[in-house]
Amino acid sequence: MKAVIVCASVSHGNTRRVADTMAQVLGAKVVAPEEVDPGELADADLVGFGSGVFYSRLHPRLTDFVKALPNGRGRAFVFATSGLPEVPLAPFTRPLVRLLEGKGFDVDGSFSCRAFDTWTPFKLVGGINKQRPNIGDLAAARAFAERLRDGRGPVS
């Protein structure tokens, strides 16, 4: 299986650590949005899209990249790291999942975990989730990627 992970990890490297963990399982290459040719994604069997969460949204570098992709098809997944938990009624991965589906991707699932966050109010106390993503978070990311690799249906 040919896999590519498009990752925008800008603050503390949290999202990149999760992407690298998934990449080991999937045999994937991890690239920033500005480093990948959309044609390379068209040749992939599975494409992951992930970033940290900023103001309850995924990073604009990632979402702008996906918006600019031509319509196509293939399997995809979405992942994120954030200081605060995802709200079940409005998960921050949902808008990107819908955008990818609108582009013709079959989205097999999404993954998120908590991560070190120094957003302005948290900066005053030295940040939150200082030890995250931790071993348990990375094990969960690995298990998520294994389910994707093994084709065990949509995963969340």
Major β-sheet annotation: 6 strands, mixed
Low-confidence stretches: none
Distance between the termini: 21 Å
Mean pLDDT: 84
Could you tell me the strand content as a percent range? Answer: 25-35%
TL;DR of this structure?
This protein is of the alpha/beta class.
Plain-language structure description:
The chain is α/β, with parallel strands linked by helices and 156 residues long. The chain contains 6 helices and 6 strands; from the N terminus they run βαβαββαβαβαα. It has helices at 14-26, 38-42, 60-68, 94-102, 120-123, 135-149; strands at 3-8, 29-31, 46-54, 57-58, 74-82, 105-114. Strands 1, 2, 3, 4, 5 and 6 form a 6-stranded mixed beta sheet that branches. Helix 1 runs parallel beside helix 6. The longest helix has 15 residues, at 135-149. The radius of gyration is 15 Å and the shape is globular. The two termini are 21 Å apart. The mean pLDDT is 84.
Give the helix/strand layout:
Elements: E1 3-8, H1 14-26, E2 29-31, H2 38-42, E3 46-54, E4 57-58, H3 60-68, E5 74-82, H4 94-102, E6 105-114, H5 120-123, H6 135-149
Parallel strand pairs: 1-2, 1-3, 3-5, 5-6
Antiparallel strand pairs: 3-4
